[in-house]
Write a structure and sequence with these properties.
- The protein has six helices and no strands.
- The protein is an all-alpha fold and 158 residues long.
- The protein is elongated and about 55 Å long.
- The mean pLDDT is 92.
C-alpha cells in the first residue's frame, strides 16, 4: 500500500505535486499582474485583499515548487509526517484565504457591473481587468483546493 501512495496525485516531491504548485504559482501571478495593471484597484479593499492573498499564495506555492524540484532532483522523500502536516496547514490556510479573496472581489465586481452600473458610468474603471483577475483567482483556488485535499489524504496515509 505504501508504494501505491507514492504515486498519489499531488504528493510532495512528485511531478504531479510540482505541476499543481506550478499551476498555482502561474495563475496567482497572473491574477496579481492583471489586478495591479488595472486603474484605481487600490481604492477598493476587496481588490487589495485579492492582491495580498494571491501574493501569499504565489510565495507559498513557489516555495513548495522549489522543494518539489529539490526532492525530484536529489531523490528525496518528502512524506515525513511533520513536514506533510506543515503542508496541510499551509495549503488549507492559503486555500481559505484565496477563496475568501476571490469571492469578495467577485462580489465587488458584480456590484460594479450589474447593480450600480459603475462600469458604464465611470469608463475609466477597468472592470474587464477586475473580472479577469477574479477569474484567475478562482482558477488558482481550484488548484489550491485540489492540493489541499491531496495533502490531507497523503497525511492520512502516513
Amino acid at each position: 500500500m505504501t508504494e501505491r501512495m507514492k504515486d498519489f496525485l499531488g504528493s510532495p516531491g512528485t511531478w504531479s505535486g510540482f505541476a499543481l504548485r506550478s499551476a498555482q504559482c502561474g495563475f496567482a501571478a497572473a491574477s496579481v499582474g492583471v489586478m495591479a495593471s488595472a486603474n484605481s484597484f487600490s481604492n477598493y479593499t476587496a481588490f487589495c485583499y485579492l492582491i495580498a492573498s494571491m501574493g501569499l499564495q504565489l510565495l507559498w506555492s513557489l516555495g513548495l515548487a522549489c522543494l518539489d524540484i529539490y526532492a525530484l532532483k536529489f531523490k528525496r522523500d518528502l512524506r515525513n509526517p511533520v513536514l506533510v502536516s506543515l503542508f496541510v496547514v499551509g495549503d488549507w490556510v492559503t486555500a481559505i484565504l484565496s477563496f475568501a479573496a476571490a469571492c469578495s472581489s467577485a462580489g465587488v465586481t458584480l456590484l460594479f457591473e450589474k447593480d450600480v452600473h459603475f462600469c458604464k458610468t465611470f469608463p475609466q474603471l477597468a472592470c474587464g481587468r477586475y473580472a479577469l483577475s477574479v477569474l484567475l483567482a478562482f482558477i488558482t483556488w481550484t488548484f489550491t483546493a485540489t492540493s489541499s485535499v491531496s495533502m490531507f489524504w497523503v497525511l492520512a496515509s502516513l
